[in-house]
Write a structure and sequence with these properties.
Strand order of the largest sheet of chain A: 1-11-10-4-9-8-7
Shape of chain B: extended
Strand order of the largest sheet of chain B: 2-1-3
Number of helices of chain B: 18
Strand content of chain B: 5-15%
CATH topology of chain A: Rossmann fold
CATH superfamily of chain A: P-loop containing nucleotide triphosphate hydrolases
Mean pLDDT of chain B: 87
Number of strands of chain B: 3
CATH topology of the largest domain in chain B: MetI-like fold
Shape of chain A: globular
Mean pLDDT of chain A: 89
CATH architecture of the largest domain in chain B: Orthogonal Bundle
CATH class of chain A: Alpha Beta
Oligomer: heterodimer
Distance between the termini of chain B: 65 Å
Order of helices and strands of chain A: EEEEHEEHEHHHHEHEHEEHH
Number of strands of chain A: 11
Number of helices of chain A: 10
Strand content of chain A: 25-35%
Largest sheet of chain B: 3 strands, antiparallel
Largest interface: A-B, 30 and 19 residues
Low-confidence stretches of chain B: none
CATH class of the largest domain in chain B: Mainly Alpha
CATH superfamily of the largest domain in chain B: MetI-like
Order of helices and strands of chain B: HEHHHHHEHHEHHHHHHHHHH
Helix content of chain A: 25-40%
Structural class of chain A: alpha/beta
Radius of gyration of chain A: 19 Å
Structural class of chain B: mainly alpha
Chain lengths: ~270, ~425
């Protein structure tokens, strides 16, 4: 398999009310190009699933959306990504407020080695979102409730976050992310380290969060993509092969590569 | 071809013999190494304790002495200055002359040499504290001379030519022992006195205070500088030729023989900047140079060991670089940094060579009060004493080594405990 020459993304890469617009995004790790001319819209209040075989660049693309790749020295990005029409790679843009607007949940649950309360309160604290102790308590409670964790932890808010189970830790990370009230949440395989029950809870949560947030989720599980997302984008060797409404991708894929992947011929 | 007739299982079984033997051999080697290390340690400690334990006991002569006010020429209203000028030494000599009845000058001299010069000070101090003693008889434990001390502790009953006591002196001593006058007591002077030419009066307080002040200077300079350098190099410095050069040189510095740092301190701090020699300040400066590489290297290792997922989490929430470093990386790296610092400080505690270069090898009697007073440090004191001809200094050398080892063990234990506490926080 090799990169397709003069590839044009199949399906509907653009949508009506985009929150994020990626245009001709290319990513280089030193000499090696990891992503080729990806153009994709992510609509407001939708869940878009990014799927594809390992090493296809879906995580790399996701990390471009809040400039997490900036922390890698050799990583270079071309093209532009617009959040509400504003290019986030503009030299004038500061990544700190950007990441407050575009939050991220990682593959492995990574709570801070602090208490549950401090984990959730950290974001609001550094951004100065709470004016008083009461304010902060309220934000923490609301975030934990939205993440479906409040009832499980309300009696032990000051015990370490690392003492929770894997699924609870991941929901704590989601609570921590929504505590800063972002507009977009990026999720990089959020359930890959979790058991099916914890996964089901997170999926349910994603569905609820859609009301208030725009969500992009990278996943290796096609069932998960089918369950939680409205649109699905299929990546292959750094190229965006096909974007379509999820049910369409899984029933009538346009591209042969997409079809091969979802039917399990490779992946 | 017998081999082909063997089944795979047989081949595996056959190879197991060899593999099991190899494993057993390795275990034996390992155990032998550990045992050897332990033996060395036990041997070292055993020898030092064996030689040095007696340094903590001091021979004294218990006697009833009349504080003769007329002889001293002072009365009960005398002020401290007058008491200080009074001839207590003569009083003691007179007392022992009466007690032993030596014949002729040479015997008198032999007698006087058996009592420490410190005995007069003891008496003087007692009178200064309580002038009403004047004219009364008091019982006091007078410090014996180091030769008497050694004889009583080690040589009693051995051949005369082995020790520095002659027949007459031994006769007197045996008499005193019979009368219960000669005994040993805890050697307080060893801990409260500074250095002295008289072994029985020499103590380690000056050296300990000097060590403490020197290490204080070292810590106050090397910890903040080392941690700041480690953080900058690890988190903020751009990766280029210059930082690479700096990194290589920090590693080189860690391997530089310590006496070189002494020369550097002499050339730069003393000759160019005019820092006073032989003080804890200059000692601390030189030891800072020596400790910095250790702290920087261990600090960087501790920072590197912080899981990247924690950084990512903080960055993902919109924390700035400073916030990531100071809220997350540093607290997690601090136990490791502290351990490195304490290891570096323990190294500095035992360091002698560079301090010789900057004059800390001087004979200093006074206990230093601050970082700019002349002083010596414990390892240099040990070095000085080990060079002294008096036998009593030999046991004091071992005694001082025991104190130094005690400090080292305490510091390392503190490091371990501190680290555990910090790590247990979450």
């Amino acid at each position: 398999m090799s990169i397709i020459e003069n590839h044009k993304t199949n399906g509907a890469a653009f949508c009506e009310n985009p929150k994020l617009k990626a245009r001709d995004v290319g990513v280089f790790y030193g000499e090696k190009q990891a992503i080729f001319d990806v153009s994709l819209d992510i609509g407001a209040n939708e869940v878009i699933a990014l799927i594809g075989p390992s090493g296809c660049g879906k995580s790399t693309f996701l990390r471009c959306l809040n400039r997490m790749n900036d922390t890698i020295d050799i990583c270079q990005i071309r093209g532009e990504i617009l959040l509400d029409g504003e290019n986030i790679y503009d030299p004038k843009v500061d990544v700190v407020p950007l990441r407050a607007r575009v939050g991220m949940v990682f593959q492995k649950p990574n709570p801070f080695p602090k208490s549950i309360y401090d984990n959730v309160a950290y974001g609001p604290r550094i951004h100065g979102l709470a004016h008083s102790r009461v304010d902060l308590d309220e934000i923490v409670e609301k975030s934990l409730q939205r993440a479906g964790l409040w009832n499980e932890v309300k009696d032990r808010l000051h015990s370490p976050g690392t003492g929770l189970s894997g699924g609870q830790q991941q929901r704590l990370c989601i609570a921590r992310t929504i505590a800063v009230d972002p507009e977009v949440i990026l999720m990089d395989e959020p359930c890959s380290a979790l058991d099916p029950i914890a996964t089901a809870k997170i999926e349910e949560l994603i569905d609820e969060l859609r009301e208030n947030y725009t969500i992009a989720i990278v996943t290796h599980s096609m069932q998960q993509a089918a369950r939680v997302s409205q649109r699905t984008a299929y990546f292959h060797l750094g190229q965006l092969i096909e974007v379509n409404p999820t049910d369409q991708v899984f029933t009538t894929p346009q591209h042969t590569l997409t079809e091969a992947y979802i039917t399990g011929r490779f992946g | 071809m017998t081999n082909t007739s063997m089944s795979t299982r047989e081949k595996v079984e056959k190879s197991m013999v060899r593999r099991r033997a190899a494993e057993k051999r390795f275990r034996v080697y390992g155990m032998a190494s550990v045992l050897f290390g332990l033996l060395c340690l036990v041997g070292l400690f055993g020898d030092i304790i064996n030689k040095g334990a007696s340094a903590f006991r001091q021979t004294v002569i218990q006697t009833e002495i009349l504080i003769d006010a007329d002889y001293l020429g002072i009365n009960k209203k005398a002020d401290d200055q007058e008491i200080r000028n009074a001839d207590f030494e003569g009083l003691i000599k007179q007392h022992f002359k009466k007690l032993v009845q030596p014949e002729g000058r040479s015997e008198r001299r032999m007698l006087y040499s058996m009592i420490s010069a410190g005995a007069a000070w003891q008496l003087q101090e007692a009178v200064m504290l309580n002038p009403s003693l004047l004219g009364q008889t008091m019982s006091i434990n007078l410090i014996a001379d180091d030769d008497v001390d050694q004889w009583f502790k080690h040589d009693r009953g051995t051949e005369l030519h082995n020790n520095r006591m002659n027949e007459t002196q031994v006769k007197w001593l045996e008499q005193w022992i019979e009368q219960g006058m000669l005994k040993t007591q805890f050697n307080t002077l060893f801990f409260v006195n500074g250095d002295s030419r008289e072994p029985e009066l020499a103590g380690i307080r000056g050296a300990i205070t000097g060590t403490f002040l020197t290490l204080l200077v070292t810590f106050l300079l090397s910890f903040p500088i080392g941690v700041a350098a480690a953080i900058y190099l690890e988190e903020f410095a751009p990766r280029n030729k210059i930082t690479e050069f700096v990194e290589i040189n920090i590693n080189n510095l860690a391997a530089v023989p310590s006496i070189t740092f002494g020369l550097l301190g002499l050339a730069i701090f003393i000759n160019i900047f005019g820092v006073a020699r032989s003080t804890p300040l200059i000692g601390g400066l030189v030891l800072t140079l020596m400790t910095l590489p250790t702290i920087i290297i261990s600090g960087r290792a501790a920072i590197k060991a912080v899981p990247p997922s924690i950084r990512e989490a903080a960055f993902g929430l919109g924390a700035s670089k400073m916030q990531v470093v100071f809220h997350h990386v540093l607290p997690l790296a601090l136990p490791g940094m502290l351990t490195g610092t304490i290891i570096g400080m323990a190294q500095a505690l035992g360091e002698t060579a560079p301090l010789l270069m900057i004059g800390m090898v001087a004979f200093v009697v006074d206990v230093p009060g601050f970082v700019n007073d002349p002083s010596t440090v414990l390892p240099v004191q040990i070095f000085l004493w080990s060079d002294s001809p008096e036998r009593a200094f030999m046991e004091r050398t071992s005694g001082a080594i025991m104190v130094l080892l005690g400090f080292l063990v305490t510091m390392n234990t503190a490091a371990v405990m501190l680290r555990r506490r910090l790590e247990r926080r979450w």
